[in-house]
Structures are given as structure tokens and as C-alpha cells.
Amino acid sequence: MNTTETNTTLDMNKKSIYSLQLDELKSWLTENDEKPFRAEQIFDWLYKKRITAFEDMSNVAKGLRDKISEHFQLTTLNTAIQQTSADGTIKFLFELHDGYSIETVLMRHDYGNSVCVTTQVGCRIGCTFCASTLGGLKRHLEAGEIVAQVVKVQQTLDETNERVDSVVIMGIGEPFDNYDNMLSFLKIINHEKALNIGARHITVSTSGIVPKIYQFADEQTQINFAISLHAPNTELRSRLMPINKAYKLDDLMKAVRYYIDKTGRRISFEYGLFGGVNDSIEHAEELASLLKGIKCHVNLIPVNYVPERDYVRTPREKIFAFEKTLKNLGINVTIRREQGSDIDAACGQLRAKERKEETR
Fold this sequence. Notes:
alpha/beta; 2 domains; DNA polymerase, domain 1; 13 helices; TIM Barrel; tRNA processing
């Protein structure tokens, strides 16, 4: 379904108000001769009532509304395209204030509604199976632009009295390549005065920027952590994921062990199955050996076909054989439930199809 919205003219030099932590907003109010308690009122308008214009904040004095409007923008995302799958999955192609586009996905599960957010316009990691990296990295998203994705989906769910129950940072881009904005986003959506999404209902995934894994471990959050692995040895991983040339598999696994020792938390490994590439029984055995003794869970992902890439999906019987081999070797493993197969479900696929000028 194509949708068209009126695009509010935004000053690209203004910071998104969604980028502010509550304490930062209180400090800004104090510095501008306003009462800091107004910050909680403003957060209530932003995240509970989910206003679409500053003038909607009816219990905030006009003078303060004007000050806020002068210094900040209320980040709005234009819905360029909205696709709805038969299984209830909704994929949004949002247009940003500078004309670039990003993808956000609403996934419906038995345990609630999950939103997959994007952290960058494009990606420079260069994974050979991913449409997100087509055209490279255009820019990082501001924290507020990531927050706005969740707000926008929540506004959609408001129409049916539903809520966003969980968030995964697995959309376009490498979250750890935009680390500070990603971390600010996490704190905002987790805050009880904002969207109040529990830390254990948030998952962040990385392709393996090793120094940032150590840094993230030291944050000591309760947020779930996933590694995009996709290969059981360093040679194959380098073919699939060029980042492995910068951060070797051995170094990645050392960082994984540090994370587990530091936090006591389990790690998830995302393993996409590509037909004839990484899906043999020998690969499963090698993967089990690599992960032996590590507190982890493996999420097997039957890949979505991407026209711009050459990989094909592993046959169903081979997926089950791969899973069974891991289980027999003591690895905790599940197969990700397929969603959105009748729409442009693969990460970056809708943007690649509709915004070719961005992804050349």
C-alpha cells in the first residue's frame, strides 16, 4: 500500500526533541529560565499522548512552546510506502527530513508486537548477502530519528489499542557503528516516563565491531545482545562478512566471552542459512565446536531472497537437519519463524527497490 503524508518543513540544524534524555531536557529548561518539572509534562505529551505538533501541548505555556519550537524539531517521519503482509507484519519505508529513506518493521508474535528499527541510512559493513549495504553508508541517524520510528509505529498501533511490546535493533545499518546515538536511543525508550519498554524486551545486534562489544559489556545493561555470525570459521565468515577481515573470528569470540563473564548474560548468535554455502552438516558440527561451553542461543534464519544478491534459501529438510545436528551436540537452537514473505521482507529490500538512487 502506498501512502502520502504532508511533510512538515524541518530545520535540519535543529536537534530532535526525541534525542533528549529527561535529565537533559530538565537542564535545558533550567538554562532557559523555565521550571525543570515541565520536562515530565513534555515527556508525557511526547511519549504517552504522542503528539504530532508542539502546539498540541495544551497545558504548556505558549511562550515555552515557542522556545521549544525555536530550538528543537519534533521529528516526523513521512510514510512513503506501507506494506502489510498476510501474517500481520507491516513494513514501513519512511522518508526523513533530508529526503533519505529508512525501513522499520512491525512484527506480530504470540508474545506481543515487536518493532525492528534502523540506525543508519545505508551501511558500510558490506555483508555480501544484505540489501542494506547497497550504495554504502549515507549518514548516521540521530537518536531521535531512531526513537521516532518506535513512536510512529506506536501511533499506528494506537488505532487498534495495541502497544509496542519489544524492540530489536536489527534494521538497516550497523548499530555499533552509530554507538552513541544507539545507546541514547536505548535509554530513552527504556525510561519509565518515555516509552517504558523493559530492557529485557530490547535486543541489539552487531556484525562484530569488537571494541564496541567490550564497551557495551561495560555498560552493564539488561538489554539482550546478539551477534550476526553466519559462518563457523574465519575463512567463510570473511567471504560473507568483510568485517571479519578487520575483526577476526577468534577476536570476536574473545569479546563474546568477555561480555558473558562481565554481564552473566546469554548471547544470541544469528546464523543465516544460505543454500550450498554455510548449511551443511559439517558446518553445523563446526559451529557447535566453535560455541562449545559458551552461554548462548543460536537463531537459525532461513534467508529471504534478495534479487540484488546471489544467495538462495536452504531447502527445508536441510534446515531441520542443521538444527537437529546442533541440538544433538548440545547447542540451544531455534529456527526463526518466517514473517512477511509476501512483502519486501528482507532488510533493506524495500528501500533498494523503491529508492534506487540511494542504493546504487
